[in-house]
Amino acid sequence: MTMKSTIWSSIRHYLFRCLQKKNGCEHSSEKLKNDSSFDPVIYSLESPKFHKFVLNGSNLFKGWVFYFGDKKVNQIYVYADAKPLGSCEVNLARYDVATHVPSLPAVENCGFEISVECKESYKKIIFYIKYHDNTKELFFEYDVQFIKRMSYEMSICSNNLDKLKMPDGPTVKLTQGHDNVEEYFNSILPSVLAIKDYLSFSGVGIEKANNLLDFGCGSGRILKGWYACHPEINLYGCDYNSHLVKWIKNNLPERISVFENDLTPPLDCPSSNFDLIYLISVFTHLTLDNQKRWIKEFERILRPDGILLVSLHGEFYVRNAFFHHPEKLQLFRDQGFTTTNNEGLEGSNSFGTFHSLSFAVQLFEKFELLGFFPQGNLPDRRRVFHVALSQDIYVFKLKKNSSIQHNMVAEQA
């Protein structure tokens, strides 16, 4: 069997499992077969986060949205089940977003705000977008009943989170691209919920994660969420930025164990140590050679059947980055991988990498693909809040024999 047929065999196996689960993956299966699942609706809902939602009262829904293509989003319409609640124009200035999407002038005014009166009896608050040509499309659904069911648990998590120290603006900017401490704080619990969703849709329960590693943990943003919501998990984090590692050690509880790593392996960790490792916006800034080195290291430190969750730049990011460089786009189409100019500093935002689904499956050949979430969306709907804006999310499981063989080789060496 050739390498190419092996890759597509893995993808077909993943699709078959999705169809068996009947969880909505059927909707995206044809796109996956074509190794493309691009959603041109790019967005971010900034408020209200789930734990800040008022069940009976007014909520300000605020964010931005644009269509990456030849359409312009003009309005948003809001309904509670079938009842109209209001509408708003999409025309507020968002130069902070436009800076990152220079190919579309309309992005300069892609912001929206709408105040919505909510009741806990509502099932869902449903958002539609209307384009300049008067066509409409379902945007996303805000699940009120989910919030109601989770309100007690989220209040406990929120109270625990309030007791933890947050970094200052300059420290936040080192990893988030902005210095808004409040937005940083409010993004913590939604990020944990997003990761749990990706794992759940992939057939993985968080209760299996006794030892968790946040690889590239920054200032511990997501680790704070696990600490607040899951005291039963042993939490570890690592980062190659010594300032951020020092900040965590000086400001967060000792239960969050962190250490500094180099740009290349190994880590100072025993073999077969972790049940879950996740990398959010890490491989997106590492060379392919170093990605391969780290994958070998993850094979060593993960337990058999251990889970690896990875975010990668996919179709939207490559289209946006190379809109003036068709040769780079073609390289991505041909090979499934490309990078920004190598002049950028590896590990920083100035250096970017881009992966297709088929290339990622080949790259993680010692892992089984359990879940693929294009642009961070779920199989049957757009996620309200992402863990990594419009990045593709992959959930892999380490094959048992891969872990055993790797550790035998390491012991012999």
Brief summary of the model shown:
It is built from 14 helices and 16 strands. With 413 residues, it is of the alpha/beta class.
Rg is: 21 Å
Shape verdict: globular
**pLDDT averaged residue by residue:** 89
Content of β-strand: 25-35%
Strand element count: 16
Report low-confidence residues grouped into runs of 5 or more.
1-35
What proportion of the residues is helical, as a percent range? 25-40%
Q: SSE string, helix = H, strand = E? A: HHEEEEHEEEHHHHEHEHEEHEHHEEHEEH
Across the major sheet, the strand order is 10-9-8-11-12-16-15
Name the structural class: alpha/beta
Main beta sheet: 7 strands, mixed
Number of helices: 14
Distance between the termini: 31 Å
Structure commentary:
- This protein is α/β, with parallel strands linked by helices.
- It contains 14 helices and 16 strands.
- The strands form four sheets. It has a seven-stranded mixed beta sheet with strand order 10-9-8-11-12-16-15, with helices on both faces. A four-stranded antiparallel beta sheet has the order 4-3-6-7. The protein has a three-stranded antiparallel beta sheet with strand order 1-2-5, with no helix packed on it.
- Strand 11, helix 10 (288-301) and strand 12 (302-312) form a beta-alpha-beta unit.
- Helix 1 (3-21) packs across helix 13, helix 7 (188-201) packs across helix 8 (221-229) and helix 10 (288-301) crosses helix 14 (400-412).
- The relative contact order is 0.12.
- Mean pLDDT is 89; it is low at 1-35.
